[in-house]
Each structure stands twice: as structure tokens, then as C-alpha cells.
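input
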Amino acid sequence: MLRPALPIATARLLLRPLGPADLGTLCDIYLRPAVQRYLYWKPRNRGDIAEWLAQRSNRGSLEHEGDVLSLGVVLPGSATLIGTVVLKWLSAAHRQGEVGFVLHPDHHRQGYAGEAATVLMRLGFEELGLHRIVGRCDARNRASATVMARLGMRQEAHLRENEYVDGEWTDEYQYAMLRTEWAAASHKRGRATPIER
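output
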């Protein structure tokens, strides 16, 4: 079980639970064609996003396998919501999770996705006790692949034409990191990370 103290402040961001007031901003992000192109779910209208948000609003914990922790990524100075970051608990028995992120295109290439995802990786490994965290993206989405590589995740697979999306076959990259790799990377950053629970 994971119940982090929220909100979580990083050097440049604030991660907080999503709420109904975020609907307009999330629509502005998720309904953009440049963002939708790479999403694994395709919101078509405001109602789709409202339904998605209702399932994730004010949920700040992972209590059971299959639960998803979805947090808003906010610029503290302006309180502007610039995207979302998620940690899904894939398997309790195998201690596996998945990390993901979506940012407004105006805030790409500034390191925000990696900064936010690092927090969820830390929560997954150090507080939930996960053994392995995966990430995946459309192979055309080089920016997401770059973020996962910079997080220290290894590319483990390049699945050829594994999904049929919007009338075309698309490839997928799969990345992963083990808890021991996270601990070693944390140690190199000058911070010891316990790996046994």
C-alpha cells in the first residue's frame, strides 16, 4: 500500500491530486492532436476526459493491485497545471509497476516530465517496495523515449507493429528499471537508497 503525503514539492514542480477544477486544463492538454497522437487511450471530447478525471480525482493512494496514482504536475509560482504523471500498480505478487507522463506541449523539453516521473519512481521503489517499474511509448514518440532513458530505464523491447492506431500499425518501445538499478543510480547521485523492506 502507498499513501504518500501530498502535495509533493520538487525543485521546480508541485505534484498534487487531480480534482474537478482541472477539467478545463486537462481538456486543453489531452484533446490536442499532437498529444492524442501518442496516447494509449483516445479521449474524443470533454465528456471522455470528465469521465477519466472522475475516476482519478482526489485519489492519492495505491491500495490494491491495478490501482493508479494520478497526480497533476503544477508550476508552483503560477499554480498552472502543465500535465499529469501516473504510477500504476501492475502486480502485487511480482512487485511491478508502470510509470507514465503527459505534458502540455508548451512545457516540453524543459526536464519537467523526468523531474515528475523521478518522484513516482522513488515512491514505487522506496515506499511501495516495487521490484521493477516499466514504461512504454509509441516508437514515434522520441521525446518520451528520451525521458525514460534519462531516468536510467533500459529499453527492453521494440515491438513491431503491435497496435493498430487511427488507421495505421504502430511500433512500441518498452523500458524498465529494477529496484537494484534504482538504488545504484540513487547512490551515484549521492543519496543512499534502501532496497530491502
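quick obs: Residues 192-197 have pLDDT under 50 and may be disordered.
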